[in-house]
Design goal:
12 helices; Outer membrane efflux proteins (OEP); single chain
């Protein structure tokens, strides 16, 4: 668990300040995550794709199930010799039933591979969920950060305007030179440019938030403390190796590839199936009464043994291809594990560095505020210049901006660390249990379906377009504690 100072540094929350915003008008990080969880099109689309993956199990099972069919035929002989037994017309019906008994393990292993790929897909869906949540958290903190930066830059512009008026007044009475006034004008122009850039960045952050969550940001509350953060990179890596969804998905895909090899080897094995058929044919009164009855019936049952002797090299090619793909899956498992370990360690380092940056910039903010007050006092007695004041104000602004950015970076890095560990999903973030999506529920619904006409209703869209939302402006949101 985190040390208390680390929790405070990441949480960015002050209970007294939070009470300043009425709950009915404030939007929390949990609210944003809930909206994205329910309506983000990337996530809802991934769920639909997983439902399609679920169907590969009953599709594969169908190859090992009985197949039944009927066939009807009407025949009109346009030319016949009346001296023969050929009838003028006939109508026939036939029913067939084929039951696979043994297929050399092809179907059994293919079903096992399909089941494993369903499990891999479910873990991929977990990974998509973590990715979307990480992006929402970053967008949420971007809006908070950029709102604060716009506010700080606006305050800086106003301070520089006051400073310019004071410099101009002092120039009029000969207390300062024209150079001092020019320096004040230059610094104000640069500050206005920085303010405009900050406004543009805030608009971009708001629009990104809208794209992810589906609605524009309202007054945002500071995010809550993150639970379960590790005490060391080693413990984080150990957790990730067990819980990271990408690693788990790669293991399932590797195991599925192994069953693909076994399934393709079964192409060389004998196959046994049973069959039954029944038929009826009626000559519709066109038969030769001397030689033919008016109708015929037939019924048959038996078994078929098929022993492949030569298939043009196809089974060998399929088996070699499956082995190559299993080799790829094995290497991919190692590649994913390496990537996850790298992400975990990098996120941990970034998180720790941001915490240290918060402590340093807090000291810097206090020091620059004190320095600015001192420079202004010294300027009033003639020992400091206007340029000294401008530089001190710029240093104070830079320190405050760096503090806001460090707070944002610490929280985002901490959440990215949890995501890499496999602990940044809806079930980990205390979202309403009533809205949680269980991909296994659909699999349980369809994996043993037997009926040919068991269709689902036509799909309807879940996510909503954002074309109806207004274009965002550069008005900073009020964030308590920032």
């Amino acid at each position: 668990m985190l040390k208390s100072r680390s929790v405070v540094a990441i949480a960015l929350t002050a209970s007294a300040a939070t009470l300043l915003i009425p709950p009915c008008t404030a939007e929390t990080l949990k609210d944003a995550l809930t909206k994205a969880y329910q309506e983000n099109p990337t996530l809802t689309g991934a769920r639909a794709n997983q439902r399609a993956e679920d169907e590969n199990v009953p599709i594969t099972k169908a190859d090992g199930r009985p197949a039944a069919g009927v066939r009807g035929t009407y025949t009109e002989n346009l030319h016949r010799d009346l001296s023969t037994t050929t009838p003028g017309r006939s109508a026939a019906g036939q029913a067939n039933l084929d039951v696979p008994l043994y297929s050399g393990g092809v179907i059994r292993n293919a079903v096992k591979a399909a089941k494993l790929r369903v499990e891999a897909g479910q873990n991929d869906l977990r990974g998509t969920e973590s990715t979307i949540f990480s992006r929402v958290v970053a967008a949420y903190l971007d809006v908070i950060r950029d709102s604060s930066i716009v506010t700080l830059n606006a305050q800086n512009v106003e301070a520089l305007k006051v400073n310019l008026r004071a410099s101009s007044d002092r120039f009029e009475v000969g207390d300062v030179t024209r150079t001092d006034v020019a320096q004040s004008e230059s610094r104000l122009s640069l500050a206005q440019a920085d303010f405009q850039r900050a406004q543009a960045q805030l608009i971009a952050s708001k629009e990104n938030y809208t794209a992810l969550v589906g609605s524009p940001p309202q007054n945002l509350e500071p995010p809550p403390p993150l639970p379960g953060l590790p005490e060391s990179p080693e413990s984080a890596v150990a957790t990730a190796l067990v819980d990271n969804p990408d690693i788990l998905a790669s293991h399932k895909s590797r195991d599925a590839a192994r069953y693909d090899v076994r399934s393709n080897k079964g192409q060389m094995m004998p196959r046994i199936s049973a069959f039954a058929s029944a038929g009826y044919q009626d000559f519709l009164g066109s038969e030769n009464p001397i030689f033919l009855p008016s109708s015929t019936k037939s019924a048959a049952a038996g078994a078929t043994l098929t022993i492949p002797l030569y298939q043009g090299g196809r089974p060998g090619a399929l088996e070699r291809q499956a082995i190559a793909r299993e080799s790829f899956a094995i290497e991919q498992t190692i590649a994913v594990e390496r990537d996850v370990i790298s992400q975990v360690r990098a996120a941990y380092a970034s998180w720790q560095a941001s915490l240290q940056a918060i402590e340093s910039t807090l000291k810097a903010v206090a020091a620059t505020e004190l320095s600015l007050q001192g420079v202004k006092a010294e300027n009033s007695v003639g020992t400091r210049t206007i340029l000294d004041i401008l530089n001190a104000e710029q240093e104070a602004l830079n320190a405050r901006v760096q503090l806001v950015s460090a707070r944002r970076n610490a929280y985002v890095a901490a959440f990215s660390l949890l995501a890499a560990m496999g602990h940044a999903e809806a079930r980990d973030l205390a979202l309403d249990p009533a809205i949680l999506y269980d991909p296994a529920r659909n699999y349980r619904r369809v994996h043993d379906k037997l009926m040919d006409f068991d269709f689902d209703p036509a799909p309807t869209g879940i996510s909503k377009p954002t074309s109806g939302t207004p274009a965002q402006d550069a008005t900073p949101l009020i964030i308590p504690g920032y």
